[in-house]
Every structure is written in structure tokens, then in C-alpha cells.
Specification:
Blueprint lengths: L7 E4 L5 H12 L3 E6 L2 H13 L3 E6 L5 H15 L4 E4 L14 H26 L6 E8 H5 L5 H21 L4 E8 L15 E2 L2 E2 L4 H9 L8 H12 L10 E4 L6
Parallel strand pairs: 1-2, 1-4, 2-3, 4-5, 5-6, 6-9
Antiparallel strand pairs: 7-8
The structure holds nicotinamide-adenine-dinucleotide (NAD).
Nicotinamide-adenine-dinucleotide (NAD) binds next to helix 1, strand 2, helix 4 and strand 5.
């Protein structure tokens, strides 16, 4: 099935994890993909892998927490491929701590990457997308943390819940342009964000991941296994497709049972 022939798809944070899987899957279905990441190596490696498979792709290294960088990303999509059909606001990060231990820096970084960046990118894309009869899709990447709360994630849960309000607002504002706007809320997907904290890698100086005891409890509610990045990405492709014509303003729970 090639549902996205010639469509231009911009995916933030697509150097790794679920975003990377989305980029590859969109490209295999004919999309022209703009890979973005704050980290140059993963962004370029993702683009190289897609190009080797024959996909149309450019990499744009940009920190989307910065409004001017988000604008540069959208300009790159227009320069390379002539427009934007699908924007996936996927970049995310965690900095977990119980509220009484959470620092201002942890709060600010997580809200900036998960919420502010999505606003920056949507506003920057508006210059291209928010025109009569444009059509297209915007998809936000949230988490079940934002729907059910999660101890140790006041920053992340608040930011991810904020994306739900953003989704519904942009859905209402952009209906007039023929643009559907939806949100996916993930449970646990196998990436560096969801590894065991005890053995996790550091991201910008802090370990990410989930303490093993808590992770095991989550897994018990998910049939014992995390979703693969591809399993996480597939519903996003559905939301971006023509089949989702009637679907807008929704939060799609993609948690494989973690949150019901
Ligand atoms: N993995 C899970 O279990 C899970 C669960 C719920 C929600 N999510 C969400 O899914 C999305 C993808 O996460 P993932 O699990 O693939 O993690 P990941 O760490 O593998 O990928 C996230 C990517 O975002 C990039 N990024 C971070 N800050 C950025 C910035 N300022 N500008 C541009 N790129 C930036 C990172 O460099 C990284 O490559 C995130 O929004 C995350 O919150 C993931």
C-alpha cells in the first residue's frame, strides 16, 4: 500500500525511536520526508537509511524548542519539496522526579521540548498550511501520562496533557483549511525513553528510562511486552492517511492496554 505518494511529511525528533520508524514507514509509502532532530548524527543516519531504500528525504538538524529553528525546519520542507502536507510533532524528552525534588531546569526542558516545540512548529507550519483548501494533517505525540497522570512525571504529564488541548484547538482552527488534527497517546514503546533506568543511557547529562520495578508493573498491564517503534508508528500513518477523513480533534490511545 502506498498511501502517501508525493506527500511532504515533516517529523520532529525523527532521528531515533518512534519518529525514525514513522519516517521510514512514510517514505516506503511514497512520502517525501523531512527528518528533524536536535542531534545531527541520528538525523543524518535516518535520512541516509531512507535514501538507501530509494526514499525521498532531507535531514534538517534543528532544536525545535527555538521558534526560529522551527521556522527554519518548515522553510527547509518548502525549499526541498515545495510545501507541507503532514506535520508530526513527535520530539519528546523525559526528566523524571517527584514534585518536591523536581528542579526548574527539569520542568522547563520537558515543557519546552514536549509542548512549546509543538506550538513553535505548528505556528511555523501555519505560514504554509493555514490557507483555504490546503488540506493535510497535523499529529501530536502525547502519552498516557498526560491522560492518567504518573508519579514522578509532573512536567511530562502536564506537557503531554497540554498537547490534548492544543490538538482540539488546532483541529477547530484548521478545519476551515481542510486539515485534520489528532493526537496519539502512547503507552510504552521500546526506545531509549522507555528502557530500564538502572541501565539507561544519559541524554543531555541525565539518565532517562523507567525504574525496573515500575516498568515491570506497566508491562504486566500491556500483555508483557512493549510495543515496537513500528507498532507505535502505524496508527500515526493511519491518522495521516485519506482513510482518516472523518477523524479530527481526537486523542487515540495507543497503549496496548496500559490505559483503559
Ligand atoms: N517510548 C515510549 O514509551 C513513549 C511513551 C509515551 C510517549 N512517547 C513519546 O513519543 C515521542 C517519541 O519518543 P521516543 O520514545 O521515540 O524517544 P527517543 O528519545 O527515541 O526519540 C525522541 C527524539 O526527539 C529528539 N529531540 C529531543 N529534543 C529535541 C529538540 N529540542 N528538537 C528536535 N528533536 C529533539 C531526540 O534527540 C530523539 O532523537 C516523544 O514525544 C515521547 O514523549 C514515547
Amino acid at each position: 500500500m502506498r498511501r502517501f505518494v508525493e506527500k511532504v511529511v515533516v517529523i520532529t525528533g525523527s532521528g531515533r525511536g518512534i519518529g525514525r520508524a514513522m519516517a521510514s514507514m512514510f517514505a516506503r509509502e511514497g512520502a517525501r520526508v523531512v527528518v528533524n532532530d536536535v542531534d545531527a548524527g541520528p538525523a543524518e543516519e535516518t535520512a541516509r537509511a531512507i535514501a538507501e531504500e530509494g526514499g525521498a528525504v532531507v535531514a534538517c538538524v534543528a532544536d525545535v524548542t527555538q521558534p526560529a529553528e522551527a521556522e527554519r525546519l518548515m522553510d527547509e520542507a518548502v525549499r526541498a519539496f515545495g510545501g507541507i502536507d503532514v506535520l508530526v510533532n513527535n520530539a519528546g524528552i523525559t526528566r523524571d522526579a517527584l514534585i518536591h525534588k523536581m528542579t526548574d531546569a527539569q520542568w522547563d526542558l520537558v515543557v519546552d521540548v514536549n509542548l512549546r516545540a509543538a506550538f513553535n512548529c505548528t505556528r511555523a507550519a501555519a505560514r504554509t498550511m493555514a490557507v483555504p483548501n490546503h488540506g493535510g494533517r497535523v499529529i501530536y505525540v502525547s502519552s498516557v501520562s498526560g491522560l492518567m497522570g504518573n508519579p514522578g512525571q509532573i512536567n511530562y504529564a502536564a506537557a503531554k496533557a497540554g498537547l490534548v488541548g492544543m490538538t482540539k484547538t488546532v483541529a477547530k482552527e484548521w478545519m476551515r483549511y481542510g486539515i485534520n488534527v489528532n493526537c496519539v497517546a502512547y503507552g510504552l514503546v521500546e526506545t531509549r525513553l522507555s528502557g530500564e533506568k538502572e541501565t539507561a543511557e544519559e541524554v543531555a547529562g541525565e539518565k532517562v528510562g523507567i525504574p525496573k520495578k515500575i516498568r515491570d508493573q506497566f508491562l504486566a498491564n500491556m500483555g508483557g511486552a512493549l510495543m515496537t517503534p513500528e507498532q507505535g508508528a502505524a496508527p500515526v500513518l493511519f491518522l495521516a492517511s485519506d482513510e482518516a477523513y472523518g477523524v479530527t480533534g481526537n486523542v487515540l490511545n495507543v497503549s496496548h492496554g496500559l490505559y483503559i
